[in-house]
Sequence to fold (165 residues):
Amino acid sequence: MSLLAAFSAVLPLPVLGQVSRMAQTAATQAITRMQLPPKASGGLPAPQPLSADTLRLAQRAKIMAEAKAEAASGANVAQLQAHLTALSDARQSAHEAIGQALGDLSQKSVNAWVFTGEGLAASLAANMQKEVPPPDAVMTLATLFAGEEVSALEAMVHDNHHIGP
Fold:
């Protein structure tokens, strides 16, 4: 789990977050499925947060109402200059945040086992299963990167256990 967290920190892809959640679920499932649910207490159920769709609709309605009120009040040059200054400041801080994130990302590294190959999916899967470095691993999670040009991704990965051409 710690290696998976480190890998998703180095290569922050949504699919790696999904794999991390799946691994966490698989790791805790043996314990949680044996637990008895709590007895329901009388009265109303506990409050639940609004669904994402309802919350988005409420936020959009609020933004639209604010925009209508702003449009009705009119605008002057000082307000427009203030908005442009705020936009410029936000842009500058976003650029600084991006630079900081890239700097932080360049300092991270993780060991990975990589398998590359070409051909039919069935033969690739069989070859990949034969060459797994720790054959006694309880859980093995994989992410497939497929395409005609994955050389940029391959250039990012430095591993000691590369299998394939």
